Amino acid sequence: MGDTLPDEGKGLDMLPSNGGTTSKQRSKLTGKLTGKLNCLFRTALCAGALSLACAAPAAASPTLSEKTASTEAVPFRPVTPWAEELGARVRLVLAETAHDDRPFLAGVEMEIDPGWHTYWRKPGDSGSAPVFGWSKSDNIDYAHVRWPAPRRFDNPGDVTYGYDTTVIWPVLVMPREAEKPVTLHLDLFYAVCSQICVPHDVTLELTVPAAGKSARKSGEKTGEGFKAASDTEYAQDIRAALARVPLAPKIPGRVSAALKTENGKGTLDVTLKETPDAPPMLAVEGPYYAWFGVPDVTRDAKAIRYAVPVRIDKDKSLDGKTLTLTLARADGRGGYETEFTVPGGEAATKPKPGAEAGQ
Fold first, then answer.
1. CA separation for the pair 224, 103 (Å, rounded)
2. H-helix or E-strand containing 84?
């Protein structure tokens, strides 16, 4: 008899049920058959377990395509999704598809809802300037934000500076190591105002891959960026925004200033020695304890002159302090930005450090 399982109940039917077999013999035969059945059952279980154990690793092993997919880099994206907030939405954009050992351009783009506005680095009488935080970025030496020329919002008793409709802040980024990717991580605080002012905090992040040694061709330098063969679809808009950033005058003396004060009040006289069709908007930045009002503007055949009302807190002085003058062209083509130090009422203008010469 082979090692085959009997039909259900057949094994017991094979045992005589009367007279020919004693109770002791019958018990002995039953025990043998039961033992044999148990042995065959255990053998079947072991075989099944072994089969499953052998099959399991094969089922869990990734295929070649899965291995390849897991090691591939994340696809390059030149733009983040919009971060939608009340009154505005914002995103991070790139001008180039890769970086090398030179600075490259990115941009922070904001679209502002009708009836709302956001602020320049000097908000004015109210509001909050945007704060750009890059400390969580990887493989960068610096990320310098450039400020396109703002417009002035005049309301009774409240003069502010900023942007409406749309703005792109160009960002000049210097990689630390040319052979490694750059991760731009931006923590941005900004406020938008209409009938009310609403603050927002958003986080945006993009990765810029490293270019091969011959992947990026040298091109024409534009402003503080480079026109490379690997431009993205956003490059033109970012460079146009960079062209709207006020720069230091190339010609010495193009902008001059003088300050006269008495008992905490006075006038800052600024002269622009050129005569565009529309006078540029003047914004003055200085110490927190000094207030600079809306200037009275006059012109002649050779120059445009600004008389800016000044108020200074009690027991404070502007002597020896540095003021920043920004002249924003009415046509949006940037303008001038210069600094000067106040020595007892007379100010000698000088280019702001880091500002590239304009026209």
1. 8
2. strand 83-85
**pLDDT digit string (tens) for 180-227?**
999 999 999 999 999 899 999 999 999 999 987 544 444 444 444 443
Q: Strand, coil or helix: what is 331?
A: coil
3-state class of 45 per DSSP?
helix
The residues, ordered by sequence, that sit 6+ positions from 342 with a Cβ below 8 Å of its Cβ are 259, 318, 319, 320, 321, 322, 323
Residue 117 gets which letter from DSSP?
B
CA separation for the pair 127, 52 (Å, rounded): 69
> Are the CB atoms for 349 and 339 separated by under 8 Å?
yes
Burial of 238 (0-12, 13-18, 19+ CB in 10 A): buried
Cα gap 199→119, rounded to integer Å: 11
Place of tokens 């503080």: 224
143 bridge partner residues: 173
Selection from 241, 219, 246, 227 nearest residue 354 by Cα:
246
| pLDDT for position 343 | 82
User: Hey, what amino acid is at 358?
Assistant: G
Give per-residue pLDDT as tens, 72-117: 456 889 999 999 999 999 999 999 999 999 999 999 999 999 999 9
Structure tokens belonging to residue 270: 């600024």
Cα–Cα dist 151/148, whole Å: 10
Whole-angstrom distance, CA of residue 46 vs CA of residue 296: 98
Phi and psi at residue 3, in whole multiples of 5°?
-80, 65
pLDDT tens per residue across span 264-292: 999 999 999 999 999 999 999 999 999 99
Cα–Cα distance measured from residue 187 to residue 12, given in angstroms and rounded to the nearest whole number:
82
